[in-house]
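User: What would this chain look like folded?
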Amino acid sequence: MDILHGLSDVPEHLTEGGSVVTIGVFDGVHRGHQLLITTAVEKAKAQGVPSVVMTFDPHPVAVFAPERAPLALLSLEERARQIEALGVDYLLVIDFRKELAGDSTEHYVTGVLQGTLGAREVVVGENFTFGKDAAGTAQTMAQLGERFGLEVTIVQLLNDGDVRICSTAIRDELTAGNISVATDYMGRPFSVISTIERGAGRGGRELGYPTANQYVEDVSALPADGVYAGWLTIIDTAPIDGDVKPGVRYPAAISVGTNPTFGDTRRSVESYILDRDADLYDRMARVEFVDKVRDMLKFNSVEELLENMARDVERTREILGVN
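Assistant: Here's the prediction, encoded as structure tokens.
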């Protein structure tokens, strides 16, 4: 997959040769997004033209109403990785501060989709909006498509009962600690990807549970504070000092929160890899959440904390099905 940054980066052969385009922020690349993208990919293959996903960074809401900007489920890099896995040929990343925000609906279709991307067909969700002040809808796109000779496919939204599967619903489930529901909506485990940093050092030295500590940006979504069962994978390739290998998923008990027993204030993701010991500082890790073990609690003593940590590890083994 080729990644294009801005309309000026679109190659001439794409403009002239035609494409099938789908458009959206695609934060989370959840099951609804996957349906849109795979529909576009299949239609592009049937027509013998490239598939193009047009996405936005930063999120349009962060541009027009920063106070309402949603927490990101995925970084742009991870979003691109998930989109590439669906077989897309081109990912076009638009900076909404510089392009498209002020476009009329007509120019969006004739100038951008047809004029720059050579779109023969566009695939959008039924809740799609576009153009200045988000004045255009999916139906507007269909009407303009008829007028200007652009095929438009409108894909129905996915629902789980009365709940629409969307990025907002996933954030709500994460906030409630409902990891299994968030996983179902995303079509894969929710994960955190960042560099392992040095923490207070008490996990291994004082408690006997050395942890890999990650700190994520305030603009990124996290599950509710608590302890979770999941998996940790080192995703860079340099050799590791210890019995952990890059690229291998290891079972882990994962704590999300501020460590209230010790009065810490910085929120972190701390993973204890079961039955392993390695120096993982400065390594890039993916932590996948499988299910919640318990809520975050403040304990009256280190001894009480250790008793609960031992139970957390055993419960993690049960959830993950490991000895």
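The chain has two domains: 2-160, 190-320. If you want, I can go into more detail on any region.
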